[in-house]
Amino acid sequence: MPTQPAHGHPLSENAPDKSVSIVARTPGLNARAIECVVTVPTFKRPQQLLDTLHSLAAQKTGRRFAVIVMENEAEKREGATAACAPFEEGVFSGLVVIAHRRGNCHAYNAGWETALEEFPDFRYLAVIDDDEIASPDWLENLCRTAEALNADIVGGPQVPVFAAPEHGRWATHPVFAPHYDRTGPVPALYSSGNLLISRAVLTAMPRPFLDLKFNFMGGGDSDFLSRAAQKGFRLAWCAEAITQEIVPARRVEADWIRARALRNGVISTLVEKKKRAEERFGALRVFAKSLALLGLSPLRGLGRLLSTGSLSTAMYPVYVGLGRVLAEFGYANEQYREPEKN
C-alpha cells in the first residue's frame, strides 16, 4: 500500500507547524475541471469511511467532482491510512488531508478551505459524513435542486439505518427524523450531514466558517447556516437527495437520546443569541423564549405521547427546553469531547 503523500512526507509523520496537511492526491487530477467538491470528515471509522467513498464513486452524474477526506485523528490516522491507497490508485478522485487540530469545526474548516485553495473553479461544495451512504443520484439531485430553485444552499434527508433491526421504530423520533419531507425552499437548515453549498456562500462568509465555540458540541453547522440565511442566501430542501445514516445501538440508549436533546436545546439558544446579538434586548428576548418553551414543553410532550405512544418522543421537547435554559447559565453538552461515548 502506498504511504507517501503528495507532499513527500511519510503518512506517520506529524506536521506540528501546519494545521492541515495533504497526505494523498489522485495522480493527474485536473483541478480546474472540477465542478463539485465533496468533503468527508472522518474520525476513527476507517471501514465506514470506505463504504461512504464507494457510494460516492458510484454516483450517477455527468458532473466532474472530486472528494476531500478530512482525517481528524492526527495520531493513528486510521481513516487516512485506509483511504490513501485508493486515492493514489485512482479508485477515488481527490485528496486526503489531515486536520491536525481536534474537533468537528476544525475538520470542516480544513476541508472547506482546502477546496477553495485546490479547486479554483468549482461551483458547489457538498458535505457527507463518514457514517453515511449516498444514494446513486445524491449529488446530481442536490445540484439540480440548487439550479431549479436558484438556491445557494440545499439540504437533504439523512435516513437512519439502525444496526439492530428492532430499533427501526426510532426512525420517527425527533433526534433521527428529517426536518422536511418535500422538495422546495425552506426557512432554515440545521445540519451539514447532507448538504450542498454554492461557492458564492463560501467566498462571502467570514473565516473560520464554523465557529470554534461549537468544536466539541456540534452545532457549528447550524450556526453557519443561520448566519448564511441572515446574509440573504437562499435555502432549499431536496427530498430526493437521500443518504442513509448508520445508527449504532449506542445511539438509541436513553442517556444518549437525553444528551442529544439537551445539546440541541443548548445549540438552539447559542445560535439564536448570535442571530439577535445586534438587536435591542435581543438576549432578553432569547431568554424569555427559552423560558416559554420550557414552560410549554410538558403540554407539547403530552401531545406527542398521545399521538405516538413513545415516552422518549414525549420527553424530547422537555429536554430541549431545559437545554435552552441551561445554556443561559453556561451549560455546554460537548458530546464529541469523548467520541467513544458517542
How would you describe the overall organization of this protein?
The protein has 342 residues and is of the alpha/beta class. The protein folds into two domains: 20-251, Spore Coat Polysaccharide Biosynthesis Protein SpsA, Chain A (Alpha-Beta Complex); 255-341, no CATH class. 39% of the residues lie in helices and 17% in strands. The chain contains nine helices and twelve strands. It has helices at 46-57, 78-88, 104-118, 138-149, 199-204, 220-230, 254-275, 282-308, 311-327; strands at 20-25, 36-42, 65-71, 94-99, 124-128, 132-134, 153-155, 158-162, 184-185, 194-198, 235-237, 243-247. The strands form two sheets. The chain has a nine-stranded mixed sheet, with helices on both faces. It is globular and about 60 Å long. Residues 1-17 have low confidence and may be disordered.
Q: Quick one: biggest sheet?
A: 9 strands, mixed
Distance between the termini: 31 Å
Unreliable segments of 5+ consecutive residues:
1-17
Shape: globular
Helix count, per DSSP?
A: 9
CATH topology of the largest domain: Spore Coat Polysaccharide Biosynthesis Protein SpsA, Chain A
CATH homologous superfamily descriptor of the largest domain: Spore Coat Polysaccharide Biosynthesis Protein SpsA, Chain A
β-strand percent reads 15-25%
Side-by-side strand order of the widest sheet:
1-4-3-2-5-10-7-11-9
- The secondary-structure element order is EEHEHEHEEHEEEEHHEEHHH
Number of domains: 2
SS-derived structural category: alpha/beta
CATH architecture grouping of the largest domain:
Alpha-Beta Complex
Helix content: 25-40%
